[in-house]
Amino acid sequence: MSAMGESVGGVPPVKVATFDCYGTLIDWEGGAAAFLYDLARRNGDFDPGPGRQLRERWEQIQFEAIQEEYRTYSEVLSDSLRAWVGERGYRWNTREGEALESAMQAWQPFADTIPALTRAKEAGLRLVIISNTDRHIMEQTLRQLSPLTFDAVVVAEDVRSYKPDTTAFTRALAHAGARPEEILHVAFGFEYDIAPAQEVGMQTAWVNRHRERPPGGQRPDYEWRDLWDLAEYAERQASA
């Protein structure tokens, strides 16, 4: 792995940046942790543990769910939340699944997302989203990312499969207008994104906001603390 923000030598210039959305552009971790902590408190659990731990367990359940036969992400959200609620002994109400979906549509971008990606786009990069969600959820999220616009958006509903399956990446290649090696996939979701992006031939950048150890054996081409590194990369490339 290269040092933070430094390139592995010999790679071709990047024309397109693709992104995982939730967790990379949108504060998925904070939003999900807050929702689950509040749900626990409303169930009379006044010491449920840190929101981070609640989120991590729910994400484990969700990751297992998306390995099964394809269902819409709305169904995955509801079913994984119901399993999490059951594990903790809370009472299940179907409205909680609807509330989680509604909350997700309102989660906000990180402070660096819009300005950094705007700079990257102005420096010449095309921007594409590849996300494990439904189209109607993504439409609301794109409103949160306004005025930033994307050249293409591929969601799980379009291909009826979820990352880490490579189908969404293959679909994105068809929209990108560039060879795989000219595309940089930027993501925080190591197990969902880095390996499949590399499998289809993309360069990869792991957004490691919390300076964690890599959870897998893959070696991304870049490891960045935030999206300002992408903006600086694009500007250096444009001026070269």
Detailed description of the structure:
The protein is of the alpha/beta class and 240 residues long. It has two domains: 16-27 and 108-239, 3-Layer(aba) Sandwich (Rossmann fold); 28-106, DNA polymerase, domain 1 (Orthogonal Bundle). It contains ten helices and six strands. The protein has helices at 28-42, 51-65, 73-87, 94-106, 113-122, 135-144, 156-159, 167-176, 190-199, 228-239; strands at residues 16-19, 126-131, 152-155, 183-187, 203-207, 222-224. Helix 6 links the parallel strand 2 and strand 3. Helix 2 crosses helix 3 (73-87) and helix 5 runs parallel beside helix 10. The longest helix has 15 residues, at 28-42.
Q: What descriptors fit this protein?
A:
240 residues; alpha/beta; Rossmann fold; DNA polymerase, domain 1; 2 domains; six-stranded parallel beta sheet; 6 strands; disordered N terminus
